[in-house]
Protein backbone atom coordinates (compact mmCIF):
# COMPACT_ATOMS: atom_id res chain seq x y z
CA UNK A 1 0.00 0.00 0.00
CA UNK A 2 2.87 2.38 0.71
CA UNK A 3 4.05 2.27 -2.91
CA UNK A 4 0.48 2.93 -4.01
CA UNK A 5 0.26 6.03 -1.81
CA UNK A 6 3.84 7.15 -2.64
CA UNK A 7 2.80 7.56 -6.27
CA UNK A 8 -0.06 9.92 -5.41
CA UNK A 9 -2.82 7.33 -5.70
CA UNK A 10 -5.59 6.96 -3.19
CA UNK A 11 -8.32 4.43 -2.82
CA UNK A 12 -11.77 5.71 -1.87
CA UNK A 13 -14.40 3.29 -0.63
CA UNK A 14 -17.64 4.79 0.65
CA UNK A 15 -18.49 3.98 4.28
CA UNK A 16 -21.72 2.19 3.27
CA UNK A 17 -19.75 0.04 0.81
CA UNK A 18 -17.22 -0.89 3.51
CA UNK A 19 -20.08 -2.06 5.76
CA UNK A 20 -21.57 -4.09 2.89
CA UNK A 21 -18.20 -5.65 2.03
CA UNK A 22 -17.64 -6.71 5.64
CA UNK A 23 -21.09 -8.25 6.04
CA UNK A 24 -21.64 -9.79 2.60
CA UNK A 25 -21.33 -13.53 2.25
CA UNK A 26 -20.58 -14.27 -1.41
CA UNK A 27 -21.59 -17.54 -3.03
CA UNK A 28 -17.96 -18.14 -3.99
CA UNK A 29 -14.63 -16.41 -4.40
CA UNK A 30 -13.41 -16.26 -8.00
CA UNK A 31 -9.66 -16.70 -8.44
CA UNK A 32 -7.76 -15.80 -11.60
CA UNK A 33 -4.36 -17.49 -11.41
CA UNK A 34 -1.70 -17.60 -14.07
CA UNK A 35 1.62 -17.44 -12.25
CA UNK A 36 3.24 -16.30 -9.06
CA UNK A 37 5.14 -13.07 -9.53
CA UNK A 38 8.91 -13.07 -9.57
CA UNK A 39 10.20 -9.51 -9.28
CA UNK A 40 13.59 -7.80 -9.34
CA UNK A 41 14.74 -4.24 -8.83
CA UNK A 42 14.37 -2.23 -12.03
CA UNK A 43 14.67 1.55 -11.79
CA UNK A 44 12.88 1.89 -15.14
CA UNK A 45 9.96 -0.36 -14.14
CA UNK A 46 6.73 0.68 -12.47
CA UNK A 47 7.30 1.18 -8.74
CA UNK A 48 11.01 0.42 -9.35
CA UNK A 49 10.48 -3.29 -10.05
CA UNK A 50 10.56 -5.55 -13.08
CA UNK A 51 9.11 -9.01 -13.60
CA UNK A 52 11.42 -11.97 -14.11
CA UNK A 53 10.64 -15.35 -15.67
CA UNK A 54 13.41 -17.92 -15.05
CA UNK A 55 11.76 -20.73 -17.06
CA UNK A 56 13.76 -22.08 -20.05
CA UNK A 57 10.70 -21.64 -22.30
CA UNK A 58 8.82 -18.83 -20.59
CA UNK A 59 5.07 -18.50 -20.66
CA UNK A 60 4.20 -14.91 -21.53
CA UNK A 61 2.18 -14.58 -18.33
CA UNK A 62 4.86 -15.72 -15.90
CA UNK A 63 6.69 -18.74 -14.52
CA UNK A 64 4.83 -22.05 -14.65
CA UNK A 65 4.41 -23.07 -11.01
CA UNK A 66 1.36 -25.30 -10.36
CA UNK A 67 2.43 -25.78 -6.73
CA UNK A 68 1.87 -22.05 -6.22
CA UNK A 69 -1.78 -22.46 -7.29
CA UNK A 70 -2.16 -25.32 -4.80
CA UNK A 71 -0.59 -23.21 -2.05
CA UNK A 72 -2.75 -20.19 -2.94
CA UNK A 73 -5.98 -22.20 -2.64
CA UNK A 74 -4.96 -23.49 0.79
CA UNK A 75 -3.85 -20.04 1.91
CA UNK A 76 -7.17 -18.49 0.87
CA UNK A 77 -8.89 -21.26 2.83
CA UNK A 78 -6.88 -20.43 5.94
CA UNK A 79 -6.76 -16.64 5.65
CA UNK A 80 -10.29 -15.88 4.46
CA UNK A 81 -12.60 -18.13 6.42
CA UNK A 82 -12.71 -21.22 4.22
CA UNK A 83 -14.80 -19.78 1.36
CA UNK A 84 -16.16 -21.70 -1.59
CA UNK A 85 -13.84 -20.97 -4.52
CA UNK A 86 -13.80 -21.28 -8.29
CA UNK A 87 -10.76 -20.83 -10.46
CA UNK A 88 -12.31 -18.44 -12.97
CA UNK A 89 -9.19 -18.10 -15.17
CA UNK A 90 -6.07 -20.24 -15.52
CA UNK A 91 -3.97 -20.75 -18.62
CA UNK A 92 -0.75 -20.00 -20.45
CA UNK A 93 0.46 -18.60 -23.74
CA UNK A 94 3.87 -19.52 -25.13
CA UNK A 95 4.96 -17.07 -27.83
CA UNK A 96 6.61 -18.84 -30.73
CA UNK A 97 5.20 -22.25 -29.82
CA UNK A 98 2.11 -24.11 -31.09
CA UNK A 99 1.36 -21.34 -33.59
CA UNK A 100 0.76 -23.35 -36.76
CA UNK A 101 -1.32 -26.42 -37.47
CA UNK A 102 0.58 -29.19 -39.24
CA UNK A 103 -1.38 -31.97 -40.95
CA UNK A 104 -4.56 -30.85 -39.21
CA UNK A 105 -2.96 -30.96 -35.77
CA UNK A 106 -1.51 -28.43 -33.33
CA UNK A 107 0.92 -30.10 -30.94
CA UNK A 108 0.96 -27.79 -27.93
CA UNK A 109 2.91 -29.87 -25.44
CA UNK A 110 3.74 -26.92 -23.20
CA UNK A 111 0.08 -25.95 -22.75
CA UNK A 112 -0.98 -29.59 -22.36
CA UNK A 113 1.56 -29.96 -19.56
CA UNK A 114 0.48 -26.64 -18.00
CA UNK A 115 -3.19 -27.62 -17.96
CA UNK A 116 -2.58 -31.13 -16.62
CA UNK A 117 -0.28 -29.99 -13.82
CA UNK A 118 -2.49 -27.05 -12.77
CA UNK A 119 -5.67 -29.16 -12.69
CA UNK A 120 -3.81 -31.80 -10.66
CA UNK A 121 -2.54 -29.12 -8.23
CA UNK A 122 -6.04 -27.67 -7.83
CA UNK A 123 -7.52 -31.11 -7.18
CA UNK A 124 -4.80 -31.85 -4.62
CA UNK A 125 -5.74 -28.65 -2.76
CA UNK A 126 -9.37 -29.74 -2.88
CA UNK A 127 -8.49 -33.14 -1.42
CA UNK A 128 -6.67 -31.23 1.35
CA UNK A 129 -9.79 -29.30 2.25
CA UNK A 130 -10.03 -26.30 -0.09
CA UNK A 131 -13.66 -25.78 -1.09
CA UNK A 132 -12.91 -25.69 -4.81
CA UNK A 133 -16.16 -25.97 -6.74
CA UNK A 134 -15.00 -25.25 -10.29
CA UNK A 135 -12.13 -24.68 -12.69
CA UNK A 136 -12.34 -22.63 -15.87
CA UNK A 137 -9.46 -22.68 -18.30
CA UNK A 138 -8.43 -19.57 -20.24
CA UNK A 139 -9.26 -19.88 -23.08
CA UNK A 140 -11.35 -22.00 -25.43
CA UNK A 141 -10.09 -20.21 -28.56
CA UNK A 142 -7.04 -18.16 -29.43
CA UNK A 143 -7.97 -14.51 -29.17
CA UNK A 144 -6.74 -10.94 -28.90
CA UNK A 145 -4.77 -10.40 -25.71
CA UNK A 146 -4.69 -6.85 -24.35
CA UNK A 147 -0.93 -6.63 -23.94
CA UNK A 148 0.27 -8.77 -26.83
CA UNK A 149 -2.41 -8.83 -29.54
CA UNK A 150 -2.71 -12.21 -31.24
CA UNK A 151 0.92 -13.34 -30.73
CA UNK A 152 0.44 -15.51 -27.64
CA UNK A 153 -2.06 -18.26 -28.17
CA UNK A 154 -3.89 -19.14 -24.98
CA UNK A 155 -6.65 -21.21 -26.58
CA UNK A 156 -7.39 -24.90 -26.68
CA UNK A 157 -8.50 -24.26 -30.26
CA UNK A 158 -6.13 -22.65 -32.78
CA UNK A 159 -7.74 -19.81 -34.72
CA UNK A 160 -6.31 -18.78 -38.07
CA UNK A 161 -6.81 -15.04 -37.68
CA UNK A 162 -7.01 -14.46 -41.46
CA UNK A 163 -9.57 -17.17 -42.27
CA UNK A 164 -11.11 -17.81 -38.84
CA UNK A 165 -10.58 -21.56 -39.39
CA UNK A 166 -10.49 -23.42 -36.09
CA UNK A 167 -8.30 -26.42 -35.31
CA UNK A 168 -8.51 -28.15 -31.90
CA UNK A 169 -5.07 -28.41 -30.32
CA UNK A 170 -3.74 -31.45 -28.47
CA UNK A 171 -4.49 -29.61 -25.21
CA UNK A 172 -8.18 -29.62 -26.21
CA UNK A 173 -8.17 -33.43 -26.03
CA UNK A 174 -6.13 -33.42 -22.82
CA UNK A 175 -8.59 -31.04 -21.13
CA UNK A 176 -11.57 -33.07 -22.39
CA UNK A 177 -10.01 -36.19 -20.88
CA UNK A 178 -9.46 -34.40 -17.55
CA UNK A 179 -13.13 -33.39 -17.52
CA UNK A 180 -14.26 -36.90 -18.45
CA UNK A 181 -12.08 -38.33 -15.67
CA UNK A 182 -14.12 -36.34 -13.20
CA UNK A 183 -13.13 -34.12 -10.35
CA UNK A 184 -11.21 -36.84 -8.53
**Share of helix among residues?**
25-40%
DSSP strand count: 7
- At CATH level 3, the topology is TIM Barrel
Q: What integer value in Å does the Rg equal?
A: 19 Å
Reading off the top of the CATH hierarchy, the class is best stated as Alpha Beta
Q: How many structurally independent domains?
A: 1
Structural class: alpha/beta
State the end-to-end CA separation: 39 Å
Architecture, CATH level 2?
Answer: Alpha-Beta Barrel
Shape: globular
Uncertain segments of ≥5 residues (pLDDT<50)?
none
How are the strands of the largest sheet arranged? 1-4-5
How would you explain this protein's 3D organization?
This protein has helices spanning 2-6, 15-23, 66-79, 109-127, 170-181; strands at 29-32, 39-41, 49-51, 84-89, 131-135, 157-159, 166-168. Helices cover 32% and strands 15% of the residues. The chain has a three-stranded parallel β-sheet with strand order 1-4-5, with helices on one face. The protein has five helices and seven strands, in the order ααβββαβαβββα. It has one domain: Glycosidases (TIM Barrel), CATH 3.20.20.80. The mean pLDDT is 87. The protein is of the alpha/beta class and 184 residues long.
